[in-house]
């Protein structure tokens, strides 16, 4: 027969865990709206910049830019921005990021970690210990530094490993290549197009776009903004994915804790009933002697 004292202790322990998971779930829920609002604004900005970038990239003069040179066949020297969570207890969120990152790490790859878990896992010259506190100014400064280094030939590729927010229940770790510029760099924008024009614009509107002073000069100015927007957007999307994953994990943990408390309570009741029955039996047996 199970020990009733041990069962009571375990029930209290699981109940304490249940209260913790509920509190963490509520905190995550309160952050989801703010995080997804920031993510959607970043997506809108990225689509607008992508549209300009795509038109510049199609210009023959711009194709000779340092930003559009081809990377070596083996990838060459690579800068990889890896975005992970600020905390754990978010299901497989961090593990999925690290599993994907492991596929690309090599001696030619230097890492720029963003998020506490990424900083704990990787070391780099630039480290940003918080996704939640990563600002647009941080993204702009990092982008200008990286684009200048890329244009100078200090490395050959720039990529971001981030988590794409699909829904509250679905998030996908993926890699996005930013430099050198290519058609793949503007996939997110292309998906929003209808008949070659951005949603909400006609073909005549986009065909009449005029660049001053010239496309090459504008490309040199816009690329850092493009990279900064992509970095900021990736951080915001990853943060939204983290809080959504944490809420889902806490909801699941809370349900499991409630189920466990129910089973333990049943065991406790049976053990207590058995102990009472045994005491009554002993009393009756003693009275009959």
Compact summary:
This protein is an alpha/beta fold.
Properties at a glance:
289 residues; alpha/beta; Pyruvate Kinase, Chain: A, domain 1; two-stranded antiparallel ribbon
Instruction: Give the second-level CATH assignment, the architecture.
Output: 3-Layer(aba) Sandwich
Q: Quickly name the level 1 CATH class.
A: Alpha Beta
Strand content: 5-15%
Number of domains: 1
Shape type: elongated
Q: Identify the strand order in the major beta sheet.
A: 2-1-3-4
What's the Cα radius of gyration? Answer: 28 Å
Number of strands: 6
Q: Mind telling me the CATH superfamily name?
A: ATP synthase, F1 complex, gamma subunit
The string of secondary-structure elements, in order, is HEHEHHEEHEEHH
Distance between the termini: 27 Å
Low-pLDDT stretches are 189-206
Secondary structure layout plus pairing:
Layout: H1 4-57, E1 78-83, H2 93-102, E2 109-114, H3 116-121, H4 136-151, E3 157-167, E4 170-179, H5 187-190, E5 193-194, E6 197-198, H6 203-207, H7 215-287
Parallel strand pairs: 1-2, 1-3
Antiparallel strand pairs: 3-4, 5-6
């Amino acid at each position: 027969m199970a020990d009733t004292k041990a069962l009571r202790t375990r029930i209290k322990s699981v109940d304490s865990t249940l209260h913790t998971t509920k509190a963490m779930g509520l905190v995550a829920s309160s952050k989801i709206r703010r995080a997804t609002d920031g993510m959607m604004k970043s997506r809108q900005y990225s689509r607008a910049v992508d549209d300009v970038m795509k038109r510049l990239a199609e210009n023959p003069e711009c194709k000779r830019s340092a930003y559009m040179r081809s990377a070596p066949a083996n990838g060459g020297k690579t800068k990889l921005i890896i975005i992970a969570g600020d905390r754990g207890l978010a299901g497989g969120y961090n593990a999925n990021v690290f599993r994907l990152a492991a596929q690309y790490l090599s001696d030619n790859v230097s890492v720029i970690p963003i998020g506490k878990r990424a900083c704990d896992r990787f070391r780099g010259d630039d480290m940003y210990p918080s996704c939640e506190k990563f600002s647009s100014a941080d993204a702009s400064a990092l982008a200008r530094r990286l684009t200048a280094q890329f244009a100078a030939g200090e490395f050959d590729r720039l990529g971001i490993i981030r988590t794409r927010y699909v829904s509250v229940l679905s998030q996908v770790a993926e890699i996005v290549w930013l430099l050198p510029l290519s058609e793949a760099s503007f996939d997110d924008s292309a998906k929003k197009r209808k008949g070659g024009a951005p949603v909400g614009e006609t073909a005549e509107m986009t065909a009449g776009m005029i660049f001053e002073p010239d496309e090459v000069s504008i490309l040199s100015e816009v690329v850092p903004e493009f990279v900064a927007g992509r970095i900021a957007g990736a951080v915001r999307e990853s943060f939204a994915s983290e809080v959504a994953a944490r809420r889902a994990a806490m909801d699941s943990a809370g349900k499991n804790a409630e189920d466990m408390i129910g089973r333990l309570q049943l065991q406790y009741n049976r053990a207590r009933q058995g102990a009472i029955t045994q005491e009554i039996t002993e009393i009756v047996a003693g009275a009959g002697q």
